[in-house]
Protein backbone atom coordinates (compact mmCIF):
# COMPACT_ATOMS: atom_id res chain seq x y z
CA UNK A 1 0.00 0.00 0.00
CA UNK A 2 1.79 3.08 -1.29
CA UNK A 3 0.80 5.89 1.07
CA UNK A 4 2.85 8.51 -0.76
CA UNK A 5 2.75 8.55 -4.54
CA UNK A 6 4.62 10.39 -7.21
CA UNK A 7 2.84 9.46 -10.38
CA UNK A 8 5.33 11.01 -12.78
CA UNK A 9 8.53 8.98 -12.89
CA UNK A 10 10.24 11.65 -14.97
CA UNK A 11 9.95 15.27 -16.05
CA UNK A 12 11.89 17.28 -18.62
CA UNK A 13 11.98 21.09 -18.48
CA UNK A 14 13.87 23.79 -20.31
CA UNK A 15 16.36 25.87 -18.36
CA UNK A 16 14.75 29.02 -17.00
CA UNK A 17 11.23 27.59 -17.04
CA UNK A 18 9.22 26.35 -14.09
CA UNK A 19 9.46 22.76 -12.87
CA UNK A 20 6.41 21.40 -11.09
CA UNK A 21 6.73 18.11 -9.25
CA UNK A 22 3.64 16.52 -7.80
CA UNK A 23 2.97 14.21 -4.90
CA UNK A 24 -0.21 12.64 -3.54
CA UNK A 25 -0.81 10.94 -0.23
CA UNK A 26 -3.54 8.80 1.22
CA UNK A 27 -3.02 8.94 4.97
CA UNK A 28 -4.93 11.84 6.51
CA UNK A 29 -2.77 11.58 9.64
CA UNK A 30 0.24 12.95 7.79
CA UNK A 31 0.92 16.49 8.92
CA UNK A 32 4.49 17.18 7.90
CA UNK A 33 5.79 16.96 4.35
CA UNK A 34 9.26 17.26 2.92
CA UNK A 35 11.01 17.32 -0.42
CA UNK A 36 14.43 15.77 -0.90
CA UNK A 37 16.75 15.91 -3.89
CA UNK A 38 18.95 12.95 -4.69
CA UNK A 39 21.86 12.45 -7.05
CA UNK A 40 22.94 8.92 -8.04
CA UNK A 41 25.04 7.12 -5.42
CA UNK A 42 24.43 9.86 -2.88
CA UNK A 43 22.03 10.26 0.00
CA UNK A 44 19.00 12.55 -0.29
CA UNK A 45 19.50 16.23 0.46
CA UNK A 46 16.76 18.07 2.30
CA UNK A 47 15.22 20.87 0.22
CA UNK A 48 12.11 22.24 1.84
CA UNK A 49 9.30 21.20 4.14
CA UNK A 50 5.80 22.24 5.04
CA UNK A 51 3.59 21.68 8.03
CA UNK A 52 -0.08 20.94 7.58
CA UNK A 53 -0.99 24.23 9.24
CA UNK A 54 0.33 26.01 6.17
CA UNK A 55 -0.55 25.80 2.51
CA UNK A 56 2.62 27.33 1.13
CA UNK A 57 6.27 27.57 2.05
CA UNK A 58 8.90 29.33 0.01
CA UNK A 59 12.68 29.19 0.08
CA UNK A 60 14.48 30.93 -2.73
CA UNK A 61 13.67 29.23 -6.01
CA UNK A 62 11.74 26.47 -4.26
CA UNK A 63 8.11 26.69 -3.21
CA UNK A 64 6.02 23.88 -1.80
CA UNK A 65 2.25 24.01 -1.96
CA UNK A 66 -0.02 21.84 0.16
CA UNK A 67 -3.67 21.11 -0.59
CA UNK A 68 -4.92 19.13 2.37
CA UNK A 69 -8.41 18.57 1.05
CA UNK A 70 -6.97 16.98 -2.08
CA UNK A 71 -4.14 15.30 -0.17
CA UNK A 72 -1.76 16.74 -2.69
CA UNK A 73 1.47 18.67 -2.56
CA UNK A 74 3.70 20.08 -5.22
CA UNK A 75 7.19 21.50 -5.50
CA UNK A 76 7.78 24.44 -7.82
CA UNK A 77 11.27 25.32 -8.95
CA UNK A 78 11.60 28.69 -10.63
CA UNK A 79 13.70 29.29 -12.61
CA UNK A 80 14.92 25.77 -13.29
CA UNK A 81 18.66 25.29 -13.71
CA UNK A 82 20.63 22.38 -15.20
CA UNK A 83 22.07 21.71 -11.73
CA UNK A 84 18.56 20.94 -10.54
CA UNK A 85 18.61 17.75 -12.57
CA UNK A 86 18.20 14.94 -10.04
CA UNK A 87 15.62 12.62 -8.55
CA UNK A 88 13.16 14.38 -6.26
CA UNK A 89 11.42 12.51 -3.48
CA UNK A 90 8.50 13.75 -1.46
CA UNK A 91 8.10 12.35 2.03
CA UNK A 92 5.48 12.54 4.72
CA UNK A 93 5.24 11.90 8.42
CA UNK A 94 2.79 12.31 11.24
CA UNK A 95 4.04 14.42 14.12
CA UNK A 96 1.92 12.49 16.51
CA UNK A 97 3.76 9.30 15.57
CA UNK A 98 6.19 7.98 18.14
CA UNK A 99 9.17 8.02 15.82
CA UNK A 100 8.30 10.60 13.14
CA UNK A 101 9.39 8.13 10.52
CA UNK A 102 9.19 9.30 6.95
CA UNK A 103 7.25 7.62 4.22
CA UNK A 104 8.80 8.31 0.84
CA UNK A 105 7.29 8.51 -2.59
CA UNK A 106 8.86 6.68 -5.50
CA UNK A 107 10.63 9.75 -6.86
CA UNK A 108 10.53 11.86 -10.00
CA UNK A 109 13.57 12.23 -12.19
CA UNK A 110 13.87 15.87 -13.25
CA UNK A 111 15.97 16.71 -16.28
CA UNK A 112 16.57 20.40 -16.93
CA UNK A 113 17.70 20.96 -20.48
CA UNK A 114 20.16 23.80 -21.16
CA UNK B 1 23.52 22.43 7.28
CA UNK B 2 23.66 19.27 9.35
CA UNK B 3 26.23 16.74 8.23
CA UNK B 4 25.82 13.00 8.38
CA UNK B 5 28.74 10.82 7.41
CA UNK B 6 28.30 7.22 6.30
CA UNK B 7 31.13 4.76 5.88
CA UNK B 8 32.06 2.85 3.82
CA UNK B 9 30.59 4.19 0.62
CA UNK B 10 31.13 0.96 -1.30
CA UNK B 11 31.60 -2.63 -0.18
CA UNK B 12 32.15 -5.72 -2.28
CA UNK B 13 32.49 -8.99 -0.40
CA UNK B 14 31.92 -12.70 -0.59
CA UNK B 15 28.71 -14.42 0.38
CA UNK B 16 28.63 -15.31 4.07
CA UNK B 17 30.61 -12.27 5.17
CA UNK B 18 29.25 -9.88 7.76
CA UNK B 19 29.45 -6.21 6.86
CA UNK B 20 29.31 -3.24 9.22
CA UNK B 21 28.17 0.18 8.07
CA UNK B 22 28.70 3.26 10.22
CA UNK B 23 26.58 6.37 10.37
CA UNK B 24 27.84 9.43 12.20
CA UNK B 25 26.30 12.81 12.86
CA UNK B 26 29.21 15.22 12.67
CA UNK B 27 27.84 18.48 13.97
CA UNK B 28 24.79 17.60 16.03
CA UNK B 29 23.59 15.03 18.51
CA UNK B 30 21.35 12.51 16.82
CA UNK B 31 18.83 11.16 19.24
CA UNK B 32 17.22 9.16 16.46
CA UNK B 33 18.80 7.48 13.47
CA UNK B 34 17.05 5.71 10.65
CA UNK B 35 18.26 3.03 8.29
CA UNK B 36 16.85 2.75 4.78
CA UNK B 37 17.35 0.45 1.86
CA UNK B 38 16.88 1.43 -1.74
CA UNK B 39 16.51 -0.94 -4.67
CA UNK B 40 17.23 0.33 -8.18
CA UNK B 41 14.64 2.81 -9.41
CA UNK B 42 12.59 2.40 -6.27
CA UNK B 43 11.85 4.49 -3.25
CA UNK B 44 13.70 4.49 0.04
CA UNK B 45 12.27 1.82 2.29
CA UNK B 46 12.65 2.30 6.02
CA UNK B 47 14.26 -0.72 7.65
CA UNK B 48 14.52 0.37 11.26
CA UNK B 49 14.55 3.28 13.64
CA UNK B 50 17.06 3.49 16.43
CA UNK B 51 17.04 5.75 19.43
CA UNK B 52 20.21 6.32 21.38
CA UNK B 53 20.61 3.85 24.17
CA UNK B 54 17.65 1.66 23.31
CA UNK B 55 16.85 -1.22 21.00
CA UNK B 56 16.02 -0.50 17.40
CA UNK B 57 12.46 -0.71 16.12
CA UNK B 58 12.29 -2.74 12.95
CA UNK B 59 9.76 -2.39 10.18
CA UNK B 60 7.59 -5.30 9.25
CA UNK B 61 9.42 -7.85 7.17
CA UNK B 62 12.92 -6.78 8.22
CA UNK B 63 14.86 -9.53 9.98
CA UNK B 64 16.29 -8.33 13.27
CA UNK B 65 18.91 -11.05 13.39
CA UNK B 66 19.99 -10.31 9.85
CA UNK B 67 20.31 -6.56 10.21
CA UNK B 68 21.82 -5.72 13.57
CA UNK B 69 21.56 -2.10 14.59
CA UNK B 70 23.46 -0.45 17.40
CA UNK B 71 23.05 3.17 18.48
CA UNK B 72 25.49 3.38 21.34
CA UNK B 73 26.09 7.12 21.32
CA UNK B 74 24.42 10.33 20.22
CA UNK B 75 26.67 10.55 17.19
CA UNK B 76 27.05 6.97 15.98
CA UNK B 77 24.80 4.19 14.78
CA UNK B 78 25.94 1.03 13.06
CA UNK B 79 24.16 -1.44 10.81
CA UNK B 80 25.68 -4.90 10.54
CA UNK B 81 24.46 -7.15 7.74
CA UNK B 82 25.19 -10.60 9.09
CA UNK B 83 26.11 -13.50 6.84
CA UNK B 84 25.35 -11.44 3.78
CA UNK B 85 24.05 -13.11 0.62
CA UNK B 86 23.61 -11.79 -2.92
CA UNK B 87 20.00 -10.85 -2.24
CA UNK B 88 21.25 -8.42 0.40
CA UNK B 89 23.01 -6.42 -2.29
CA UNK B 90 21.50 -2.98 -2.24
CA UNK B 91 22.03 0.68 -1.45
CA UNK B 92 21.79 1.33 2.29
CA UNK B 93 21.30 4.85 3.58
CA UNK B 94 21.17 6.21 7.09
CA UNK B 95 19.64 9.40 8.32
CA UNK B 96 19.78 11.24 11.60
CA UNK B 97 17.61 13.68 13.44
CA UNK B 98 18.54 15.76 16.45
CA UNK B 99 16.65 16.47 19.59
CA UNK B 100 13.31 17.80 18.54
CA UNK B 101 10.06 18.88 19.94
CA UNK B 102 8.52 19.99 16.70
CA UNK B 103 9.07 18.82 13.19
CA UNK B 104 12.65 18.65 12.06
CA UNK B 105 13.97 17.13 8.85
CA UNK B 106 16.08 14.04 8.75
CA UNK B 107 19.54 14.52 7.33
CA UNK B 108 20.97 11.72 5.24
CA UNK B 109 24.35 10.18 4.75
CA UNK B 110 25.62 9.49 1.24
CA UNK B 111 24.75 5.82 1.40
CA UNK B 112 26.64 2.55 1.13
CA UNK B 113 26.55 0.43 -1.99
CA UNK B 114 26.75 -3.19 -0.85
CA UNK B 115 27.54 -5.85 -3.43
CA UNK B 116 27.65 -9.48 -2.33
CA UNK B 117 29.31 -11.89 -4.73
Task: Describe the model.
- The complex is a heterodimer of chains A (114) and B (117).
- Chain A has strands spanning 4-5, 10-14, 19-25, 32-38, 45-51, 56-59, 62-67, 72-77, 86-93, 103-104, 108-113.
- By secondary structure, chain A is mainly beta.
- The model of chain A has no long low-confidence stretch (mean pLDDT 92).
- The model of chain B has no long low-confidence stretch (mean pLDDT 89).
- The radius of gyration of chain B is 14 Å and the shape is globular.
- Chain B is mainly beta and 117 residues long.
- Classes of the chains: A mainly beta (114), B mainly beta (117).
- The A-B interface holds A 32, 34, 36, 41-46, 49, 51, 89, 93, 95, 99-107 and B 1, 4, 6, 9, 32, 34, 42-46, 49, 51, 57, 91, 93-95, 97, 100, 102-103, 105-111, 113.
Which terms would index this structure?
heterodimer, A: 114 residues, mainly beta, six-stranded mixed beta sheet, 11 strands, globular, B: 117 residues, seven-stranded mixed beta sheet
What's a concise summary of this model?
The complex is a heterodimer of chains A (114) and B (117). In chain A, 0% of the residues lie in helices and 53% in strands.
What is the element layout, followed by pairings?
The complex is a heterodimer of chains A (114) and B (117).
Chain A: E1 4-5, E2 10-14, E3 19-25, E4 32-38, E5 45-51, E6 56-59, E7 62-67, E8 72-77, E9 86-93, E10 103-104, E11 108-113
Parallel strand pairs in A: 2-11
Antiparallel strand pairs in A: 1-3, 3-8, 4-5, 4-9, 6-7, 7-8, 9-10, 9-11
Chain B: E1 4-7, E2 10-13, E3 19-25, E4 30-38, E5 44-51, E6 57-58, E7 67-73, E8 76-81, E9 90-98, E10 107-108, E11 112-116
Parallel strand pairs in B: 2-11
Antiparallel strand pairs in B: 1-3, 3-8, 4-5, 4-9, 5-6, 7-8, 9-10, 9-11
Q: Could you give the count of β-strands of chain A?
A: 11
Cα-to-Cα separation, first versus last residue of chain A: 38 Å
Pair of chains with the largest interface and how many residues each contributes: A-B, 23 and 30 residues
Q: How large is the radius of gyration of chain A?
A: 14 Å
With helices defined by DSSP (H or I, 4 residues minimum), what is the helix count of chain A? 0
Indicate the proportion of strand residues of chain A. over 45%
Task: Give the % helix of chain B.
Answer: under 10%
Number of DSSP-assigned strands of chain B? 11
The H/E string of chain B reads: EEEEEEEEEEE
How large a portion of the residues of chain B is in β-strands, by DSSP E? over 45%
Looking at how many chains there are and whether they match, the oligomeric state comes to heterodimer
Classification by helices and strands of chain B:
mainly beta
Unreliable stretches of chain B = none
Computed over alpha carbons, the radius of gyration of chain B is 14 Å
Helix/strand order of chain A: EEEEEEEEEEE
